[in-house]
Amino acid sequence: MSIGEHLIDLPPMDEFNQQLVNNVHPPAWVNPEPTGRYNLVVIGAGTAGLVTAAVAAAVGAKVALIERHLMGGDCLNVGCVPSKGMIRASRAWADVKNAAEFGLHIPDGIKTDFGEAMARMRKLRARISHVDSAHRYKGLGVDVFIGDGKFTGPGTVEVAGNTLQYAKAVICTGARAAAPPIPGLEDTDYLTNETIFSLTELPPRLGVIGAGPIGCEMAQAFARFGSQVFLVEAMHGILPNEDHDASDIVHQSLTRDGVQLLCCGKDLRITNTAGSKYLSVDSHGQHYDVAVDEVLVGVGRAPNVEGLGLETVGVEFDKRSGVKVNDTLQTTNPKIYAAGDICFPLKFTHTADAMAQIVIQNALFPHPLGLGYASTKSLIIPWCTYTEPEIAHVGLYEKEATDKGIEIDTFTYKLDEVDRAILDGEEEGFARVHVKKGTDTILGATIVASHAGDMISEFTLAMKGGLGLSTITGTIHPYPTQAEVIKKVANAWRKTTFTEGKRKLLSKLFARMR
Ligand SMILES: Cc1cc2nc3c(=O)[nH]c(=O)nc-3n(C[C@H](O)[C@H](O)[C@H](O)COP(=O)(O)OP(=O)(O)OC[C@H]3O[C@@H](n4cnc5c(N)ncnc54)[C@H](O)[C@@H]3O)c2cc1C
Fold first, then answer.
1. Is any ligand 1 atom within 6 A of the Cβ of residue 73?
2. How far is the CA of 375 from the centre of ligand 1 (A)?
3. Best exposed site among 159, 179, 198, 504 by fewest CB in 10 Å?
4. Is pTM beyond 0.70 here?
5. Mind spelling out the 3-state secondary structure of 78-132?
6. For ligand 1, atom 45: residue with the closest CA
7. What is the pLDDT of residues 67-101, one digit of tens each?
8. pLDDT, tens digit, 9 for 90 and up, residues 165-224
9. Is the CB of residue 212 below 6 angstroms from any atom belonging to ligand 1?
10. 48 lines ligand 1 (CB under 6 A)
């Protein structure tokens, strides 16, 4: 059966979006005829579902993958990929605006074209999309079904009029933008991550609600493109989960780009009058009424648990935290697993990928057959907010260590003492590492730097491989690179191991050698 009746409209429907849709929701797709029982039926073809299906098929399992909208899920279509494409363009615009520092004086009245920047993003997203395409997955040996997946009874899932039988099933249905209970929001035509990447014209004034990673990344990007941006946050400052001195650096950078932060916001309400939207909010004892053309809501994610028939198969879930799983990613139905945003608080593409690997091991290679259970407990998960500068983190924060009663030593090295950062004009930031007290065992690290997301992997690898700071001090880093800050912060630890007693002893020794 063709799925022609489910035609996707992803504005603007230009050649790039058409190419994307042809890949990830082909209009002429014909669902296969299900034959026999599947080893795995996977519902949802975002990162978690795609990786689960591809790896399962690669090891020889019979797999069905069900997607109701766009294969690739949030990451490819309305998340990481379009946001990073936009951020790259906005960085280029900011570099040009700030080029005078480098002796490049741009005349007034230079032409900017937001529409072209967005077209570039759509072109690159379409180019990347073939990797997640229905035809590629068919080629991998996966039965791809387009339609709504729903559990209908023990061992059965229904999709587009077909009944699929499974030995094991995996729920990978992800999450969507949460709609917070803000008075007036319901009556407002607002943007979320599902619609903002379809803009072709720059909103002159943009209100962003929520100063978490999505809010901060988008606020800075739009400010750099030239929107007047108001960033409203209920808590103090931005990126409240990060170390305050780290988020302060990003806050200052956003302010320089023209973002106005209204934090500790109380009594936020939205009104619509005469074509404008108004955000009314009290921030730090002052009342603000700001007129905006668009409002972006970026406060939290709601798991896609509805309509799946979870009750029918005894899978427990919560409307806020999603499907309940144990450390092996098994739900309350032992034949059904879950992976990705649907069941995990750290909602990242790389986490969804890692969880898919865990599901494969536990669902397809049960204990007596194979490798022992894989567990989320052993995951070391880094993350990054892609502002300028970026903030990346892995492992414990100082506060978490204190809460858990773990004694730590902390070392911080600032980027303004790193030659390459000075030469790049990117010297606001630092590397910070927490080690188990009196040892070089790394428990956590934060980096604030222009490309902190690339740099954090050195700490992640060290933690995963059980390598301490002494290994990092003994590792040659090319000069001059910003990543030298990692070696320098490790050297800061090394210096503490060279005590006054040791120095005095050596002085005596050297005196004898003279
Ligand atoms: C703006 C934004 C920027 C982001 N940037 C980053 C980043 O830079 N780095 C990073 O690591 N993460 C980022 N993320 C998070 C990342 O996108 C998600 O963590 C990741 O996509 C989760 O993958 P998933 O497979 O769990 O879910 P999803 O990608 O949400 O996929 C779930 C899929 O299931 C389908 N589905 C749902 N219900 C059904 C059903 N009943 N039947 C059939 N199909 C169904 C959906 O249509 C969807 O395609 C970002 C997110 C957003 C919103």
1. yes
2. 21
3. 504
4. yes
5. HCHHHHHHHHHHHHHHHHHHCHHHHCCCCCCCCCCCHHHHHHHHHHHHHHHHHHH
6. 44
7. 999 999 999 999 999 999 999 999 999 999 999 99
8. 999 999 999 999 999 999 999 999 999 999 999 999 999 999 999 999 999 999 999 999
9. no
10. yes
